[in-house]
Amino acid sequence: MSVNVLFSREAILNKNGLTHMQVEINPPKAEVKENSKPVLMVIVLDRSGSMGMSADSRPVVAGESATKMDYAINSTIKFTDLLTDKDMIGVVSFDDMAVIEQKLVNVTEANKKEIIRNVRNIQPRGCTNISDALITAKKMITKEHLDNYNCKIILLSDGEANRGVCDIDGLSSIALDCLKNGITVTSLGIGLQYNSKIMDTIATSGGGLFYHIEDLSLLNNIFEEELKLSNTITAKGVKLFIKVSEPLEIGENMNEYAQEVKDDEIEIYIGDIHNQRRVLFEIKNDFVEDEKDCTFEVRVCYTNREGTQITETVEKKIRVVQSEEELKKYKENEEVVKRVATLLQNATIIYTSHLYEKGDFHGLTHALSNANSKLETLSHSYSCASGCLQATMDDLKVVASNYTTQSYSASDVKTMYARSRSATRE
Question: pLDDT at position 217, please?
């Protein structure tokens, strides 16, 4: 594991100061695949009434089209063929309440037919209780499982949470609790009727990925990709801690990982990773007036493939200066500034596309105006990336125009949302 800390500029003004910090987390390289733990997957399938519809939510005509439930069941069954006898699988289905359809078992030729039979017995009916499903899946996974497997919950749903815990904060808390206990949660939004914000929040808080799926024939590929990701994990339960020696203001990370303040440091939950993550923070200063160095202590804690807990610590200093003239003596990091602009654009699209779906055009206009104001501030603060920042503003103008003319289809908005979320994890 290597950790690198970069600032957009290694200086900040003593009044109305602004800079950005990027923490690069590079997990260990996978040298020997056999060292990885086996995989434990709990597939959580929505069996609410809407899953009995076709992918485009029209009634199913016998012999002509398959239901969303059919696709989900068939993909789950095909997924079992990808697992070794060292891996484990469990299946939970949910409508008004959750039911364990298949307890956790190692997949063998002896029990595969029973697994298939249990999954095929799932029938769509009822409402959508996502919270009960996640809690039920989490309870299936014991400490022994966590010690010996890479554990993941894959949630698949096509609708709005309307039973149990339904609010975003509540569902986020459940998913974050899974992540804190070593269980990654990935979410798959099926069709066009699900709540993008809720499904995304569950994945973001659970340390997993969020997928938008209209073409249900792609389910097999996504399940296979999730298994591949689990098999290539080289750093498990990654957490980032940041402490600063002076009272500089560190904002919420721009990638929207779950973040908490504990005592005198910030804790960010990254989850299991196999590739580089770049986490960006906005740093402001209104309290440190004297010219001095402020030290950022950045720690990354994780568990490696052998089960050893490791901590990597890096310290980086930033200088408080008292004039614009002095500030200009410090070189700007163009790549960090470009990344800031990219994350701001993606965050704006994520937020506004959800508002567009809800028909909240007043909130949407306000959000776009706020984003433009932030980009204007950045363009005045950094000279190195004025072209990039202007291009971002131009892109958002196009998005705003399409919102105003209501040119985006439901499919367009879902795709924009998912693509922008994926970009925040790069």
Answer: 85
